[in-house]
Amino acid sequence: MPTxxxxxxxxxxxxxxxxxPPSYETPAEQEERLAAEQEAKRVSDAIDEELNKQRxxxxxxxxxxxxxxxxxxxxGKSTTLKNFQLMNSPKAFRSERASWRAVxxxxxxxxxxxxxxxxxxxxxxxxxPSMPISHTTNPSLPPNTPPKEYPAxxxxxxxxxxxxxxxxxxxxxxxxxxxxxGHAQLSKLANPCQSLPLQQEISVNSSAGWKNTFNRLIGxxxxxxxxxxxxxxxxxxxxxxxxxxxxxxxxxxxxxxRKLMEVENMRPEEMAGFFLDALDRVTAPRYxxxxxxxxxxxxxxxxxSEHRFSMKTGPMGSSMSHDWRVFDVGGQRSLxxxxxxxFDDMNAIIFLAPISCFDQVLQEDPSVNRLADSFLLWKAxxxxxxxxxxxxxxxxxxxxxxxxxxxSGIRLADYIVSxxxxxxxxxxASQYLKKKFAGLLKEHxxxxxxxxxxxxxxxxxxxxxxxxxxxxVLVRDNLKRSALVT
Length: 486
Fold this sequence. Notes:
Elements: H1 14-19, H2 27-60, E1 65-70, H3 77-88, H4 90-94, H5 97-126, H6 155-163, H7 166-178, E2 203-205, H8 210-218, H9 237-243, H10 245-253, H11 255-263, H12 279-282, H13 291-296, E3 300-302, E4 304-311, E5 322-329, E6 348-354, H14 370-382, E7 391-397, H15 399-407, H16 426-444, E8 450-454, H17 460-481
Parallel strand pairs: 1-5, 1-6, 2-3, 6-7, 7-8
Antiparallel strand pairs: 4-5
Helix pairs in contact: 3-17, 5-7, 5-8, 14-16
């Protein structure tokens, strides 16, 4: 019969040693430590109690309505989430203006940085004996595109480039403030004059609390009026932006630079975070972002963003209250595996397809057309068995950009061969794309109802109207499932 042995716990156990009080602790220090431990326990117990109350309340009360925002990167998911926040929590939305002011400043600087890099590329090409002035390979252009030459830059362009060099230092300062200590991208900013390569867009984790960074820096909790920003801060990036404003406007409107961007198929005005058409306003010494500015600001987020709010009125103005939860998940290919856990118990999915991107490719895979990628994503969503009972709402987004792009002469048929000889106007193109998405739904999930909207989610007024209709539809559906209405 095997004998049992009593194992003695070593008195030199690392955990015991770690939590033991210091051997040299004085009575006063001991009293202070015990008081701090007691306060920490009180706070922890209060948090646990609050979480427990919330769980009990959720079980007793009506079930929350959950919406999942899906779509590829830069499809408009985060802007849609911001619209929900503006509609239902306007005070909290506007309290974040200090943070978004910094993001908008970063957007401006990065747009200028992109143009300066393009100028440097053209200048280098023109003065390299092994590389004649020529076109570059752009996977977003139609096949068999003839080579194009860069326009020649003159000495004034090079002087302008030098005068705008301080903006790269501003970019580095803003990036360091946005990213937490130890972030991998900070290693590329070894000195304050260095800036990130344009291909490496900065990204923040949605749970990292980056918005509070700027509130702490200015010592305020709100940015709702001019009195709530520390305008005397000598390190405010707005000082440099204001000093460079005239040169930035000169760069953006220069005909040679415009021709250079045309050669490279570079259209900043179609991208999120474009403010070069409002430089007078956003570089003003006492600039405060408007609601529209916040909606247009671009900051790539990783992880899941969740927004909770309550609607005090139900369908037809009833007084029923409903709790809502809207989730925004990352749209990059590498992040799409994280979508699946959120498929369970969702009332609705709002799928955003940026239909203006028919002539663009995925940043993470230049061999894939962005519109084709949206078709594949929509097909995967409608055919997923976990979502067969989930309401589907399709936003064909960025219609304002599509309308302008088609009007400028860019042909949809050059990129989507099946469009054929149809008219190259917005009405024909949008109806064709609607039928393509509807056809995929009918093929892979027949007899299924879905809701469809043509949207430009940076347009606050029209998007608010659409989202109000969406909320009303989902409340009605939730009540029907609960057998409260017929």
